[in-house]
Write a structure and sequence with these properties.
This protein is of the alpha/beta class and 506 residues long. The chain contains 18 helices and 26 strands. The protein has two domains: 215 residues, Glutaconate Coenzyme A-transferase, CATH 3.40.1080.10; 228 residues, Glutaconate Coenzyme A-transferase (3-Layer(aba) Sandwich). The strands form seven sheets. Strands 1, 2, 3, 4, 5, 6, 7 and 9 form an eight-stranded mixed beta sheet that branches. A five-stranded mixed beta sheet has the order 10-16-21-25-26, sandwiched between helices. A four-stranded parallel beta sheet has the order 8-15-13-11. α4 packs across α5, α8 crosses α9 and α14 packs across α15. The model has no long low-confidence stretch (mean pLDDT 96). The structure holds ligand 0RQ. GO terms for molecular function: hydrolase activity. This is Acetyl-CoA hydrolase/transferase family protein.
Length: 506
């Protein structure tokens, strides 16, 4: 048996994943670890999927509700969706097989803000949690758990579940002990107290997860890497977006609105966010801090070259190469980064107090500054809102980033009216595309439209957007706050659905 399991009570519960999966019944609500591909259970999901397939072959229904920290990996969402073993799923999810199952109507997907997901479970909004399946790096003699490459909602799932299954993965560095800060004083209203975190590098909790040993029904030993998609090579559009962001931050420092080492940064998931981090790395900025959700490869680069002095997150989101590099050099990062529960990494109180600079990707923005982060053409789920709402609403300064077109130019990401709104014009401050940056602070919607079109829209769509605003202004002279042509506002999206492009055919 692995020397990672040094608690005798739990040593007696070691069994195979197949045996452990028999503790999960059809209809159960299951909370799993995992935030991006980091820290997901590696064997239980496949064993549950096999169990579901066996039930289905006999003509029996077998589906579970699955709650996680955020997106997982093909070995969690992928195998379970493939086996038609999912009923309800929350929160953020980016696996393509699951996305198809959500969009075909097979899986009911709930998309709360990540900072809400744990507290809604505590409030009883989602009902009882039957089983928690949590990956850890080691179990101490007294049963405390050394977390692995993400914390996510693990604390809540361990506390709330009736039964607990622990996967101990010896691929995860044993040296992870000391890299986590789990805060246990999150009482429920009306007993809540201020969270005593005033600096990014402050530790307010303990480095372990606790579990009630009596609830543990199985311990499974695994040896498998985290699985994350590689990042796309940084292209010209992403580089340009990164340069606009860095220039803008210089401008903010020069204007005296933030110190030379900036305010703590939050950077979203995806290719564009990773490219912006590269832009910061190539700049003169250094000694920065990050208070964010996910540490992507770009963050490791910044920690390595001193651009970043300290990073707080809830998870890694490293490519295979990035994970190899981190696991090899882990001691280099000790004291320079910490992983916290997502109810703390994404906590509105802390985001507001620390004064974060928040940069997230988007699907589209409209000319008035409403941002859609989640839905393609108004209806098809992409990934979910993730933490973008937690960070945007409470940021000191927020920015939304995207190339100005998608799908080879057939889609303008700047549109007359967003086909779904995740972040309203009341929240959104800055929009950035490779064309330029629109600073919307202090502008009324009508003034915003000119700046967004002028600075951010692709030349192929600029004239049509201007024409739209001008006609909207003429059509209803008593409705000039946010001028719209209601019968035309979503016609660009309809044209794409009908013809495969938003461009008007000659
Ligand atoms: O499609 O993968 O088929 O090529 O969307 O687009 O430009 O590579 O951008 O990787 O930064 O993702 C909003 C999805 C952007 C992400 C989103 C298509 C495009 C491509 C990806 P392909 P890019 P990114 C905290 C922050 C919500 C959660 C969040 C996201 C694919 O940033 O999930 O912010 N955000 N969390 O072609 C149709 C459009 C499109 C479009 C892009 N207008 N219409 N398709 N695409 N724009 C972290 C967490 O919460 C975990």
């Amino acid at each position: 048996m692995s020397e990672r399991i040094s608690c005798s009570v739990l040593q007696n519960k070691v069994m195979s994943a197949e045996q452990a999966a028999t503790f999960i019944q059809a209809g159960d609500r299951v909370g799993m670890s995992g935030f991006t591909g980091a820290g997901c259970p590696k064997e239980l999901p496949t064993a549950i999927a096999e169990r579901a397939k066996a039930h289905h072959a006999r003509g029996d229904e077998f589906r579970i509700d699955l709650w996680t920290g955020a997106s997982t990996s093909p070995v969690v969402d992928g195998v379970l969706a493939e086996a038609h073993a999912l009923n309800r799923r929350l929160p953020y999810a980016s696996d393509p097989t699951l996305r198809r199952a959500i969009n075909s109507g097979e899986v009911d997907y709930l998309d709360p803000h990540l900072s809400h997901s744990a507290q809604h479970m505590w409030f009883g909004f989602y009902g009882n949690l039957d089983v928690a399946v949590i990956e850890v790096a080691a179990i101490l003699p007294d049963g405390r758990l050394v977390p692995s490459s993400s914390v996510g909602n693990n604390k809540t799932w361990l506390d709330q579940a009736d039964k607990v299954i622990i996967e101990v993965n010896d691929w995860q560095p044993r040296a992870f002990e000391g890299f986590h800060d789990v805060y246990y004083k999150t009482a429920l209203p009306p007993h809540r107290q201020p969270i005593p975190l005033t600096q990014v590098d402050q530790l307010i909790g303990e480095p372990y997860l606790r579990v009630d040993l009596d609830k543990v029904v199985a311990v499974v030993e695994t040896h498998a890497p985290d699985r994350n998609s590689p990042f796309a090579p940084i292209d010209a559009a992403s580089t340009a977006i990164g340069e606009h962001v860095v220039d803008f931050l210089r401008h903010e420092v020069a204007a005296g609105r933030m110190p030379a080492s900036l305010l703590p940064i939050q950077s979203g998931v995806g290719n564009v966010a990773n490219a912006v981090l590269a832009g910061l790395g190539n700049s003169e900025f250094n000694g920065l801090s990050a208070y964010t959700e996910v540490l992507q490869d770009g963050m490791l680069d910044l920690l390595d070259d001193g651009t970043l002095a300290f990073a707080s997150a809830t998870s890694f989101g490293l490519s295979d190469l990035g994970a190899e590099r981190f696991n090899r050099d882990i001691e280099k990062y000790r004291g320079k980064l910490v992983l916290r529960a997502e109810e703390i990494s994404n906590h509105p109180e802390l985001i507001r107090r620390l004064g974060l600079i928040c940069m997230n990707g988007m699907i589209e923005a409209d000319i008035y500054g409403h941002v859609n982060s989640t839905h393609v053409m108004g209806s098809q789920m992409m990934n979910g809102i993730g933490g973008s709402g937690d960070f945007t609403r409470n940021a000191f300064l927020n920015m939304f980033l995207s190339p100005s077109t998608a799908k080879n130019g057939s889609i303008s990401t700047i549109v007359p009216m967003a086909s779904h709104v995740d972040h309203t014009e009341h929240d959104v401050m800055v929009i950035v595309t490779e064309q330029g940056l629109a600073d919307l602070r202090g502008l009324s919607p009508r003034r915003r439209a000119r700046v967004v079109i002028e600075n951010c829209a692709h030349p192929d769509y600029k004239d049509a957007l201007l024409d739209y605003v001008e006609r909207a202004e003429k059509a209803r002279p008593n409705a000039l706050h946010t001028p719209h042509l209601l019968d035309e506002a979503l016609s660009w999206h309809q044209r794409f659905v009908d013809t495969g492009t938003m461009q008007k055919q000659a």
